Amino acid sequence: MEDKAKRKDFIYEGSNSFLGEVVAYSDAKYVIIPVPIEMTTSFLRGTRFGPREVINASISLENYDHETDREVKDEIYTLNELELPPNMEKSLECIKDTVSDVLQDGKIPILIGGEHTMTYGASIAFDKDTIFLVFDAHADFKKDMLGVEINHASTCRLINQNKEVIIFGVRSLNMNELEEIKKRKVSITYIEEADSKAKINNILKKIRGRKVYISVDMDVFDPSIAPGVGTPQPGGISYGLFLNVLKKVVATADVVGADVNEVRPILEEKSTETLAAKIIEDLISLIDKNSSK
To answer: Three-state SS string across 200-230, please?
Structure first.
């Protein structure tokens, strides 16, 4: 993608890139893809501004991770925000093509959104044997929303047409979704089971040695630590619990891609954006730690 990258209109350099990293594309292991998509938002609007604010928040983070004893440095390349057409199908194709380019270059794509529909677009670029582990307050298994089949509340259902999906942290769904999830035998962990060793071990058994894509809808967290989301729900997991699961997942599977999504900036309240940036930093640190073993 070196030549293709030169043809893109990049704006993120230095303090405007993730963690302030200034790295040549050819030297990067991870590629940040900002995806300002917002076409089917059903409640609070503003997720199109999420990528920009997450990148801005990342500048406030330290690069050193004491838990892994690693410094996240000189390995992240940040693309310009994707210029998406005002059409869902064409936007998904743009996302898919960008992710495909990054994968073909042997790098790990990390998307920042934007509504959760972007994960479906990214999924099309991956092999059918890639498992999608989705952290989400919602099951996202609706057949449609207001007659629209491709929407943010149908993401897991859409991905599951061709790939295995595991959903973690759910506390909101309807009966139609539940019936379809049972019919397809999709693995789902509800919020009250989130700290269950048996449930987590079952997930680890499913993904052991497999290629995994991790998608984090920020509404999976308790609104007290992540209020800036498109569809907030009472309750939710803590970051400590999430990080514990993330460590086990990265140590068990081959993480080939990831995203954080549904970040909706709230004026001067930047806790959600900072948490999203921290998730990306911790994920990179954990992948590096495990790949060096």
So the answer is: HHHHHHHHCCCEEEEEEEHHHECCCCCCCEC
Q: Which residue has the tokens 């998307």?
A: 111
C-alpha 227/C-alpha 123 separation (Å) is 27
173 φ, ψ (degrees, to nearest 5): -165, 165
Longest Cα–Cα distance of the chain, Å, equals 50
Would you call 258 helix, strand, or coil by DSSP? strand
231's CB contacts (< 8 A; 6+ apart) are 42, 43, 44, 137, 138, 219, 262
Name the one residue in this structure whose structure tokens are 């954080």: 260
Cα–Cα distance measured from residue 118 to residue 104, given in angstroms and rounded to the nearest whole number? 19
CA 245 to CA 233: how far, in whole Å? 21
CATH of domain 2-291: 3.40.800.10
Tell me the per-residue pLDDT of 125-166, one tens digit each, with 9 for 90 and over.
999 999 999 999 999 899 877 666 777 779 999 999 999 999
Contact in structure between 272 and 266 (CB atoms under 8 Å): yes
Distance CA 3, CA 17 (A): 20
What CA–CA distance (Å, rounded) separates 143 from 201? 30
Rounded to a whole number of angstroms, the CA Rg of the chain reads: 17
- What sign does the CA torsion over 68, 225, 75, 168 have? positive
User: pTM of the entire structure?
Assistant: 0.93
